[in-house]
Write a structure and sequence with these properties.
This protein has strands spanning 2-3, 9-11, 21-24, 31-36, 42-47, 51-56, 73-76, 81-88, 93-99, 104-110, 119-124, 130-136, 141-146, 150-155, 160-166, 172-177, 184-188. It is an all-beta fold. The strands form five sheets. A four-stranded antiparallel beta sheet has the order 4-5-6-7, with no helix packed on it. Strands 8-9-10-11 form a four-stranded antiparallel beta sheet, with no helix packed on it. Strand 9 (93-99) and strand 10 form a beta hairpin. Keywords: WD repeat. WD repeats lie at residues 165-190.
Length: 190
Amino acid sequence: LTGAQDGSVRMFEWGHAQQITCFRSGGNSRVTRMRFNYQGNKFGIVDADGYISLYQTNWKCCPLTGTSPKPYLTWQCHNKTANDFVFISSSSLIATAGFSSDNRNICLWDTLVSPTNSLVHAFICHDSGATVLAYAPKHQLLISGGRKGFTCVIDLRLKQQQQLLQSHDSPVKAIAVDPTEEYFVTGSAE
């Protein structure tokens, strides 16, 4: 799966020289992150306009009609930009990281309810925007990085921030959690 600056999203398959499906054509907002769910049957994209779109992966383009697959869900999760998201446990709960004018830059969403009621909880952290997310399922922790180099650890069971660490002097761009969930590592723009 590839996402581009021009907003296009294309799917390729091993052994095929050409794309098998174009989920989004160029001319859309820049793709900022794409992720598959744990089962691999769905994926989502977030873009620079603050939107998230969720798709089924088993959709193949009909060559005769040229119809493109449509997302089964699209909504604006941040009013300035969306930078990252993670599927939480099941595919129906999603956390997003971005930049909103009200500083609700980390949000938890339930995709099984209507978009107007889908916001489960918003966390006010990373006052200049959140850049990246990681999820530690065993401990039910959400780890986020921000533009000012801070890393935030959120307990999803309690729906509250546990720690805020100044981990870098520049934007946090990557977070990795080890398989035992004892450690996490952050990487910055510098």
